[in-house]
Amino acid sequence: MKLDKVLSISGKPGLYELKAQTRGGFLAESFIDGKKIPVSMRNNVSILSEIAIYTYTEEIPLREVFQKIYEKEEAKPSIDHKSSKNELTTYFREVLQEYDEDRVYPSDIKKVIQWYNLLISKNITDFSDPKAEEDSPQEEKES
């Protein structure tokens, strides 16, 4: 599964998989308990493939941050998201040295760590860029 099918829903814990569209929104399945819930267009929903982390020079896509954690941890879960603020910020600095401390809050780091561990527990480890994969077949056809 790609990150463009993984959702974060404001006010709901964990992550969700986009299952189907409905008239008033869509159906999502929780990674935590497997329950399917209807999500209306009024809910604040973020697709993980569209989220980025601020650095001092640019915004890094969340998938790249996940890839860095994945490589650092050698495909294993990272530290517990309930670790202390100091532990979380130190860990995140090891993963992404140039993250902007003024715009990336400890609560954001906690979410990133929690999401990464949820994805790993569901064996979702493909953090590649879906847009890059769409471009490559076209380039091959042109050749």
From TrEMBL:
<dbReference type="Pfam" id="PF18347">
    <property type="entry name" value="DUF5606"/>
</dbReference>
<dbReference type="InterPro" id="IPR049281">
    <property type="entry name" value="BVU_3817-like_C_sf"/>
</dbReference>
<dbReference type="InterPro" id="IPR049282">
    <property type="entry name" value="BVU_3817_N_sf"/>
</dbReference>
<dbReference type="InterPro" id="IPR041218">
    <property type="entry name" value="DUF5606"/>
</dbReference>
<dbReference type="InterPro" id="IPR049280">
    <property type="entry name" value="DUF6852"/>
</dbReference>
<dbReference type="Pfam" id="PF21186">
    <property type="entry name" value="DUF6852"/>
</dbReference>
<feature type="domain" description="DUF5606">
    <location>
        <begin position="3"/>
        <end position="48"/>
    </location>
</feature>
<protein>
    <submittedName>
        <fullName>Uncharacterized protein</fullName>
    </submittedName>
</protein>
<feature type="domain" description="DUF6852">
    <location>
        <begin position="51"/>
        <end position="119"/>
    </location>
</feature>
